[in-house]
Amino acid sequence: MLSSLLQIKHNEAMEPDMRIHLPVSVAEGKIKKRYETIPTATLHPNKDEIEYLRRLVIHRDSAILVLNKPPKVPTKGHLPVHNSMDVLAAAALSYGNEEGPKLVHRLDRESSGLLLMGRTKESFTRLHWLFTNLNLAKTTSQTWNAACEAYMQRYWALVIGTPKEREGIISAPISKVLLDDGKAERVILAHPSGIDGAQEAITAYRVMGPTINGCSWIELRPLTGRKHQLRVHCAEALGTPIVGDYKYGWFVHQRWKQNPQPDFEPFTGEPYKLRRPEGMEIQKGSALSKVPLLHLHCREMVIPNIAKFLSSTGEWHENGASWSKEKPNLLRFIAPMPAHMKISWNIMSSYLV
Asked: What are the boundaries of the signal sequence (predicted)?
């Protein structure tokens, strides 16, 4: 038995024949803390957790799952990230399949909205091609190709300020830079020379109403799928960072909160006083709170009805299976906004057009 305990520093090297003794409870506790994948620290979620996850599902068929992802939940897990949507779905949303669903695309951790998952290898592969590059997804089938060309995503965002033009197309390539000795990553507008690994990034946008409390609601439609594309285009290309996006709009947030701007009625020009609901809970995370959550939500999605083209055995039918002729070629989904965005929306909704 050891007569005393010595504190070992992380940078000390072990000598031959040295031993480290840890109580079992300490060792197991640290492993669980680091590698925990779902709230119960097990790959078998309990009944309440499964019910919660299944309430997020807004569509399920033989080929896909569509969920309404809540904010602050990462979509893709890795060693430092726990409780991610891919791990949770694999554990609780297999619905009898041998393998759980796989992510077709991703949403940022702090954003919310429609998240598409493939339930079979074939559906995942073809839809992933569609989200990556339209031409990759096309086949010899005119029916399938027409459905692919109708693919679309629409996001709603609350931004600080208002774009100079009411609508338009942002075509601004972006690139990634490493910070803090490679420990952090940031996306920026690419240098015009294009020598910094620039990626094409295109976003269509439309302003949905007037500026109230220094903010505007806008609709965003990404025509390419780059990481942080919408956030960087809003902050750097339009000059109107998304409310709650402190990574790309920290200084603008500081000015916005410290120097609130007066608002005016859009029709009469009279000063407008923002209605402020009473109570802290009702304002939590909204544009009225001191630290708003990110106001970026994937609200609408139109995709090909891939279940119409796939048999239960995974066989591909170019013009749709004979038993699925009555099924539509397209599927359209709309996801309600999370609570903090609903509050902000309700405050400003009387003047949205």
From this structure: none
